[in-house]
Amino acid sequence: MPIVMDVDALTEFLRREFPQVSDDFVIEEVTEELTTVRLAVGERHLRPGGTVSGPTMFALADVGIYLAILARLGPVALAVTTNCSIDFLRKPASGRDLISKTRILKLGRVLVVGDVLIYSEGDDRPVARASLTYSIPPRA
User: Fold this and answer.
1) Which of 11, 39, 49, 83 gives the lowest tally of CB atoms within 10 Å of its CB?
2) Membrane-crossing residues (predicted)?
3) pTM above 0.85?
């Protein structure tokens, strides 16, 4: 499915609709195959031991697929997560941003299924893998 919202449109949408998180996430690339989002890791994202917390990585996966869906469908603010399974594969590198790479596997009328790989910046080994399903509200 062709892209209907580019990086600038998605960034503006995130700022307008979700200002509470928009400063944490930077949309780096949107193509028909892949949506890449960066999480600027800060002190508040760390757990004891200096690693990035699981909830932070979940948030990156969730935002990544949400933006990938919006890129294809346009501004559907009420799309919601209905399922998420996440595997934590290795400890993220300390002091580095996290990068998510999201692929939409199925884009249906009601459900969207996607896969997200999360990496520490500069490392090509994923630190987490998530599979998410979103529900799309009926169009008016």
Assistant:
1) 49
2) none
3) yes
